[in-house]
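Propose amino acids for all 69 sites.
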């Protein structure tokens, strides 16, 4: 699965397009947890989404906590 397919899947399920790549990141994570995509597909999607500026909430929190120190 690539980002284009993920976007189409998002639209089919949610009935509207994702406004930000973080929405797609969350959607991909949910699809992986529910065994709708494989770990390899998930890893590739995360890599591609991060390249487009997506940030995992966990990574964002870690980054903020390091900035405060």
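Proposal:
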């Amino acid at each position: 699965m690539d980002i284009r397919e993920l976007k189409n899947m998002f639209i089919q399920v949610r009935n509207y397009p994702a406004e930000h790549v973080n929405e797609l990141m969350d959607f991909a994570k949910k699809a992986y947890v529910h065994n709708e995509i494989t770990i390899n597909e998930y890893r590739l999607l995360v890599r591609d989404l991060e390249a487009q500026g997506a940030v995992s909430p966990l990574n964002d929190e870690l980054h903020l906590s390091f900035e405060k120190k």
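Confidence is low (pLDDT under 50) at residues 61-69. The helical segments are 3-14, 21-33, 39-51, 57-68.
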